[in-house]
Amino acid sequence: LRDLIVKLGGSVITNKAVKESPRIDVIRSLVGILKDRFRVLIHGGGSFGHYVAYEVGLNRRPVSFEDALKVMKSMDRLSNIVLRSLEEFNAKILLIRPREFVINKELRLYKVFEDALVEYKKRGANILTHGDVVVDIGKYNFSVCSGDVLALIFARIFRPKAVIFLSDVDGIYTKDPKRDPSAKLIEDISGSELVGAFEGSSSTDVTGGMKLKVETIKRISEITDVYVLNGFKLDNLKRFLSGDDFVGTRIRRG
Ligand code: ADP
Ligand code: IPE
After folding, report:
1. Pocket of ligand 2 (CB under 6 A)
2. Closest of 238, 248, 176 to residue 208, by C-alpha
């Protein structure tokens, strides 16, 4: 598989328990495996963006420019690490930050200034981007544009063969696998069935976060196939990329 959109979850590339702790070896290994496979690489915030976002109250109350900038700078530190790793592998890639082309309203995506992205695509550019703080024209001043939403934005523009989410668990389960041992991995499902697979479950553990993620994945699956795989299981990822048997969740288009 090539020409993919890949999202590296913050839970994979950072240690969420410690502020601003990147997993450099994991980043390097993933970049090495993925470098010729993607058109768009997206990364999350993990213990960078999310940590500082929590400190300043982002997405919970209106934040000042100064506080928004703190979160942006934190994301810049992480994206610079990812970029450096890509450059070590001589990847030709352009870093573009959502704060420059996305506007939210009341915490939701409101407007994407996509003309430049479309032109980059036509010219064969590979793009690195990441979950970010963007202007919010509602009451919050600024809010988060997540890597998951970026995967949807870029799927619309790039029309990739597939969108891959790399997470710290094996895929999407019927319930949170970290809390509920009876959770079962969903191996193959259509986008339209996906949301029901959760609402039907008796679990109350599914966070708003996971629900939003699943809804975003459902919308991406209207465009292309989506896969959720474990970002720590590198041999499994390689098998997937070369078309062999793998463990993970496949969300079929449609
Ligand atoms: P990332 O940092 O990879 O974007 P998130 O933290 O947003 O990841 O989501 C992954 C986490 O969601 C997993 O660590 C898992 O514990 C939790 N989770 C909750 N419910 C589910 C579910 N039904 N299936 C898979 N993971 C779930
Ligand atoms: C978060 O991006 C970005 C900020 C908090 C600024 P994501 O929401 O995509 O991050 P992860 O993958 O869940 O850590």
Report:
1. 9-10, 44-46, 49-50, 53, 71, 75, 131-133, 144, 146-148
2. 176
- DSSP 3-state of 218: helix
Query: What's the whole-number average pLDDT of the chain?
Result: 94
**DSSP category for residue 212:** H
Ligand 2 pocket mutation pick from 12, 19, 144 by most atoms within 8 angstroms of CB: 144
pTM for the full predicted model = 0.96
DSSP 171: S
Residue 237: which of 166, 177, 138, 184 has the closest Cα? 166
Structure tokens at 190: 């259509």
Identify the H or E element spanning 68: helix 65-88
According to DSSP, the residues that pair with 133 across neighbouring strands are: 144
What is the C-alpha to C-alpha distance for residues 141 and 123, in angstroms, rounded to an integer? 34
Strands of 93-220 (E only): list them: 94-95, 102-105, 108-112, 127-130, 132-136, 141-145, 162-167, 188-190
Judge if the beta carbon of residue 168 lies within 6 A of ligand 1. yes
Q: What is the CA radius of gyration of the chain?
A: 17
Q: Tell me if 127 sits within 8 A of 41, measured CB to CB.
A: yes
pLDDT tens, 119-159?
Answer: 999 999 999 999 999 999 999 999 999 999 999 999 999 99
Ligand 1 neighbour 130 (Cβ under 6 A): no
Query: Cα(135)–Cα(99) distance, rounded to whole angstroms?
Result: 7
